[in-house]
Amino acid sequence: MEEFDYIIVGGGSAGCAVASRLSEDAKVSVCLLEAGGAGNNWVVKAPIGIAIQVPSKTNNWAFETVPQPGLNGRVGYQPRGKALGGSSAINAMVYIRGHRSDYDGWAALGNTGWAYEDVLPYFKKSENNESFRDTFHGTDGPLNVADLKTANPFQDHFLEAGRQLQLPMTDDFNGAEQQGLGIYQVTQKNGERWSAARAYIEPNLPRPNLKVVTGAQARKILFNGKRATGVEFGRDGKTESVRARREVILSGGAFQSPQLLMLSGVGNAPDLKSFGIDVVHHSPGVGQNLQDHIDFAFSYRSKSLDNFGVSFAGFRKLWREIGRYRREGVGMITSNIAECGGFLKTDPNLPVPDIQLHFSMGMADNHGRTRHLGHGFGCHVCLLRPKSRGAVALNNADPATPPRIDPRFYDHPDDLDVMVKAFKMTRRIMDAEPLAKWRTAEMYSEGVRSDDDIRTILRNRSDTVYHPVGTARMGTDDMAVVDPQLRVAGVEGLRVVDASIMPTLIGGNTNAPSIMIGEKAADMIRAA
Hints:
alpha+beta; FAD/NAD(P)-binding domain; 8-stranded antiparallel sheet; 7-stranded mixed sheet; 27% helix; globular
């Protein structure tokens, strides 16, 4: 059995960051286990590859939820990255940190060291921002953050619609003020996706003290008593194990980190026993506290070839754009689809924005799984701070079986009430003349005006916008899974380092915060 100082389970956004930083010390050895592939082919590198990956099982676990009563019994879709880079290999590349109050709120809950001023240095440490040079941004980190290489005219149409409605505007959602509409910066470099793997792992593969194993699906954490000593994983139909001299670091994400903890005997004891799993430590909070951004997508038909779609003329243009991309690294192939958007308040008296918009350069329908002839555009609107809480559980004791995912969308009535306001606010933008003049039809939401009709369409068509967190919650109470040092309570030699440790969902996209968590965790581990 091979031995390493640190074993990291999961080569996602946080896992790549912590593996890279720990292996900077030549005196320690690091093993990174990833269930997916290398995440370095063209469908990952070309930003428009998101249109292939998110709707399919290409580099994607493509999980589903249990039927959701709040969605009229529908089964939700939960794409998660299955490759080095994790979901940063398949996401929309939007670089957002959340609001400063999110992190101050974590600290107020007793999580010392996680206030905004504590985490800002780690956001900056990770970042190489090509555009901003100020106290909010880093310029020499591994994660490249850039403006989109090619501006789509519909960016201006969207922003002009906001201006006509006298909505606030911003050039930097991660600076002094989050509120407003604007164009998103993206994790790209030279027109290519810059995943966490490309930022943190690929440049460091020559390090002799860093071993990266792909196609390795973790089966369980190995314990000697209460101490984590290694990891058992499956690869090429065989079961293998690696041993950790210092620590096992779990970075499987909000669904698979709690799943692996439970499979390994850390979780709610009665539930584990019901599956025949030996209990290492009774931790009833494992898998609880699931939070996610519920989202609704407006969708419109348009004849403009500036929008993505399916048509003979569109295919001809796309062929030309592929050639342009290969020659110059610019054009529509560099699009992240959700090129612009913003953060707004459904009530002007709120202290922080409570909804986020992602304006789409194509028709937004069923995560891209429902395709239509023709072209169009759309706009997602999501609830930033939902009150509903779900859970992740086991379906059985087989590590190859997906976890049981139950977000309980719209379980809290306030979430639906706010989304009714969000629907109306977003529709005002989409109905404004700079956008309305480009559309030929409104799909699904035509004629939906009354609050009751809005509630109906929200229940019929809402789903995730891909930001699950919270299932291995950080805290100091009995339901917390990890402490503020990210150490799993009740055992030794084991930490969780990913979005599952978030006690509350941040107000924005979760990729950059996950990388920050990896950066901060590496410093805490080295200081141990």
